[in-house]
Amino acid sequence: MTTSGTFAFNLDLGDAIEEAFERAGLEARSGYDYRTARRSIDLLMLEWQNLGLNLWTVKEGSQVLTPGTNSYTLDPKVQDIIEAYLRTDSGNVSSQFDQSMSRISVSQYAHLSNKLTQSKPLEYYVERSPTGVTVKLWPVPDSQETYTFGYYYMERIEDSGKPASNNMDIPARFLPCLVAGLAYKLSMKYASATDRAALLKADYDEQWMMASDAAREKASLFVSPGGYTF
Q1: CA-based nearest residue to 210, from 183, 174, 170, 185
Q2: Burial of residue 42 (number of CB atoms within 10 Å: 0-12, 13-18, 19+)
Q3: 3-state DSSP call for residue 205?
Q4: pLDDT by residue (tens digit) across 206-220?
Q5: Is the pLDDT of residue 17 over 50?
Q6: Strand order across the 78-88 sheet
Q7: Cα 47 vs. chain centroid, distance in angstroms?
């Protein structure tokens, strides 16, 4: 049996849009058809980021801390922080040390009696605004050691862009979900395709469940009872 021997199948933006139009029983004929499809794709990517943790978007970042400064605005591509740690003596082979930090809520941060206390930072509060993410640390970094705030964050999925030859910023295994989702979104825009909307929605939901389940964290989680008094 002869096979291709390649593992590089992908769909560029133009092919994905054409496939979605065909599933909706439509044809992409005009520049506006492609433009409205690109807009739907970009909205779909934002929808995916609201649905859950997409592991391919998880990246590692760092911020060198300045003594006396507790607030740091991160890159706009940072959607949210998943885990964080405080690193001392970064780059020193013999003394570099990472300590886990606790994330606190806005209520917990608001109830801190002295937000200007300087010491080794132990907690962080994430302030999410329309323009980006700001991290506030407590205690405020002192000058006793060299601190680096290390974190794992969820990165915003890149925009589709204008060239039809672009590839989307997603793993190839998510392409069936992308096409299914776009076909459903198009069926809500074109009157001639509304009769397919329910079928396309069901297909999109199924594709999302399969893709998101395949992309979940596979490491084991162990929970041990104890430490509580009733």
Answers
A1: 174
A2: middle
A3: helix
A4: 999 999 888 677 666
A5: yes
A6: 58-64, 147-155, 78-88, 97-100
A7: 11
Cα 188 from Cα 193, distance rounded (Å):
7
pLDDT higher than 80, residue 162: yes
Taking a C-beta distance cutoff of 8 angstroms, is the pair 63, 135 a contact? yes
Residue 37: alpha-carbon gap to chain centroid: 22
d(CA 105, CA 55): 24
CA atoms within 13 A on the CB side of 106: 3
**Amino acid sitting at position 76:** P
Q: Which amino acid is at 103?
A: R
Tokens 């209520």: give the residue: 107
- The pTM score is 0.85
Q: Of 27, 38, 65, give the one whose Cα is nearest residue 142.
A: 65
Whether 60 and 148 have beta carbons less than 8 Å apart is answered as no
Q: In the predicted model, is pLDDT for residue 229 greater than 70?
A: no
Residue for token pair 């020193």:
92
Q: How far is Cα 196 from Cα 103, in angstroms, rounded to an integer?
A: 45
Averaged over 39-57, what is the pLDDT?
92
Backbone φ and ψ for 96, nearest 5 degrees, come out as -60, 135
12 phi-psi bin (left φ>0, alpha ψ -120 to 50, beta other): beta
